[in-house]
């Protein structure tokens, strides 16, 4: 090490701040159904989440996304909030039934106009837009025709991707095809706790393959329509799976959950294949030879520019026993086809309002894994955050100290990964606003901005101001004490 390097290393050790790369993206994220509302305006038709949330008993207290937080009408206010807080990037999703109401045919220009105006406002505010094409709101017309259980839905997704790319491709550089296809397949078609609420393990596996194929078709459509500078990704909610004990039985449980929780997406996207053990674990549920057609894996495995990683909490499993962890909702049906016998356990330590354990080492472990499997592939933390029991004090503040500590711990883990050579390109706090939290309705608050749902009043929480300082300076303090 040279004298100059020695001095710089000493300065870094005495600096009170963890400083991130100058081009690091500091942002927040949302999804269309959770915030937009206006579910019947400007040509939009129902999605599977409209149908699911209006089905009695599916969502807490019968809540729906009909109004959500009215972002469709308040988007200028919300962009102004982001600008005031100092965010450099914003990840939003496009509502498929707002753009293509039946999931096929020409686009509805009024729907595209909303996203054109939103992106223009973001750019004028100096905020980089990241567009996600699919965040779970499949047009109900396509579900009626078979949904993700049938191959045609993947083909329709490719056509939809072309429409959005043609409309926004001159404005948006960063694109994500799918958000958390594991949830779409296994919570939507396996356990049934998410829309469309089906509960068949074989159908869930078919849905997983067709979602992978949709990523491939969508990525190809984006490549064809976008400039060469566009950055393409898919966002995966990877599971950091740990054994309850060191027993061979519990190690086998980890392998099984890793296969159907992680490698069912990672292997085809990064390597153009499905792993043999996944086939073996699930052969009694689906005919993989018939499901995976020639050319599918080549399409799915076409190179991506970035990988989106969504992380909240690790999983602890054992080979037998009763599950005590219900982080994927309460259902008599398992979201783990072929591994229904695996038991999930509550990890030790502090919990969020979702009863999810707080453990930033899981994020670091996943970043290291991705770097080991695909060295040099940039990773964006496209979701990370926590639900808290937030409320506005009489003084008009929301003192969410726990969320500040959570974000600080996880950004520290990200910084350590960057120091170790992992190319992490950005961090997106989930979420900008308190919103419709899927089957939990409005009972859980993930936002850094508090929303009073009856009045729609927005109040930035203390975490928003803390995170805003990090965004403006590109650094976080080494310690909160």
From TrEMBL:
<feature type="binding site">
    <location>
        <position position="430"/>
    </location>
    <ligand>
        <name>substrate</name>
    </ligand>
</feature>
<dbReference type="GO" id="GO:0008422">
    <property type="term" value="F:beta-glucosidase activity"/>
</dbReference>
<dbReference type="InterPro" id="IPR017736">
    <property type="entry name" value="Glyco_hydro_1_beta-glucosidase"/>
</dbReference>
<dbReference type="Pfam" id="PF00232">
    <property type="entry name" value="Glyco_hydro_1"/>
</dbReference>
<dbReference type="GO" id="GO:0005829">
    <property type="term" value="C:cytosol"/>
</dbReference>
<feature type="binding site">
    <location>
        <begin position="437"/>
        <end position="438"/>
    </location>
    <ligand>
        <name>substrate</name>
    </ligand>
</feature>
<keyword id="KW-0624">Polysaccharide degradation</keyword>
<feature type="active site" description="Proton donor">
    <location>
        <position position="180"/>
    </location>
</feature>
<keyword id="KW-0119">Carbohydrate metabolism</keyword>
<keyword id="KW-0136">Cellulose degradation</keyword>
<feature type="active site" description="Nucleophile">
    <location>
        <position position="383"/>
    </location>
</feature>
<keyword id="KW-0378">Hydrolase</keyword>
<protein>
    <recommendedName>
        <fullName>Beta-glucosidase</fullName>
        <ecNumber>3.2.1.21</ecNumber>
    </recommendedName>
</protein>
<keyword id="KW-0326">Glycosidase</keyword>
<feature type="binding site">
    <location>
        <position position="34"/>
    </location>
    <ligand>
        <name>substrate</name>
    </ligand>
</feature>
<dbReference type="InterPro" id="IPR017853">
    <property type="entry name" value="GH"/>
</dbReference>
<dbReference type="GO" id="GO:0030245">
    <property type="term" value="P:cellulose catabolic process"/>
</dbReference>
<feature type="binding site">
    <location>
        <position position="312"/>
    </location>
    <ligand>
        <name>substrate</name>
    </ligand>
</feature>
<feature type="binding site">
    <location>
        <position position="135"/>
    </location>
    <ligand>
        <name>substrate</name>
    </ligand>
</feature>
<feature type="binding site">
    <location>
        <position position="179"/>
    </location>
    <ligand>
        <name>substrate</name>
    </ligand>
</feature>
<dbReference type="InterPro" id="IPR018120">
    <property type="entry name" value="Glyco_hydro_1_AS"/>
</dbReference>
<dbReference type="InterPro" id="IPR001360">
    <property type="entry name" value="Glyco_hydro_1"/>
</dbReference>
<dbReference type="InterPro" id="IPR033132">
    <property type="entry name" value="GH_1_N_CS"/>
</dbReference>
<comment type="similarity">
    <text>Belongs to the glycosyl hydrolase 1 family.</text>
</comment>
